[in-house]
Design goal:
Number of domains: 3
Order of helices and strands: HHHEEEEEEEEEEEE
Number of strands: 12
Radius of gyration: 44 Å
CATH class of the largest domain: Mainly Beta
Strand content: 25-35%
Number of helices: 3
CATH superfamily of the largest domain: Rod shape-determining protein MreC, domain 2
CATH architecture of the largest domain: Beta Barrel
Strand order of the largest sheet: 1-2-5-4-3-12
Largest sheet: 6 strands, antiparallel, barrel
Structural class: alpha+beta
Amino acid sequence: MFKQQNYLALGAVVLVAVLLLSLPQRATSRLKVAVASWFLPLFGLASAGQQLPADLADNLLPRRELLKEIDQLRRDKEQLRVQALQTTAIQRENDQLRGMLDWQRQSPWRLKLAKIVTRDPANWWHTVQIDLGSRDGLTNNLPVLTSDGLVGRVSAVGIYTSQVVLVGDQNCRVSALVEDATQDMGVLSASGPLDTSLVDLNYLSSSANIKSGQNVVTSGLGGIFPRGIPIGKIVDAQEVEYGLATEARVKLNVNLGAVDVVWVMFP
């Protein structure tokens, strides 16, 4: 009986084969496409199942590697932040030096660039040390300035460094001129310890027409500071000595607490 069933199955297969071979070519192509469409999802599923472990192995990293990458990213971030700060500082210094070079080109004065190397720890705002000395031709009482205006004068000279006393110190008296219609003149002195950006302009005439915003420059009197070096601007003014004189406050152009490079002026 089993042999009979086998014979029947074999005969059915042969019959189907004969029928397929006898079909027109167009019908045979359509039949192939239909049969392939039945098995295609199975083939795709099997392929995806084989690829999935490989993809997981590629995408999943050990926790130790992930922590190492995170730590490296943090280090790179901190390094970039430091580089950004350095770039900002370099840009600020370049802008300052560019301004000073423009000042040197515009001015007929003989100027030599110097860096501030130290400040007086006991009274840091009033004196600084620069990296030029007698070997560089420095002598006492040479004016010191930036492209923004007056800084002070050389008060002591060493071989390699020199001390500069700053505007506003009692040892740095400056004859100043207000750029107004009457060209009023006075003498600068310290305004007080609370705001080191302000100085007093004393000994002005009682008839001086002093107004806020007027420019103040060196007058050229006294033999140390030549005429025309910018100092600052008038903040306000008041009568003193029972109306016999006028006193004004001046906002300095130069931030003396932050300046780090200066020009020394030679005669």
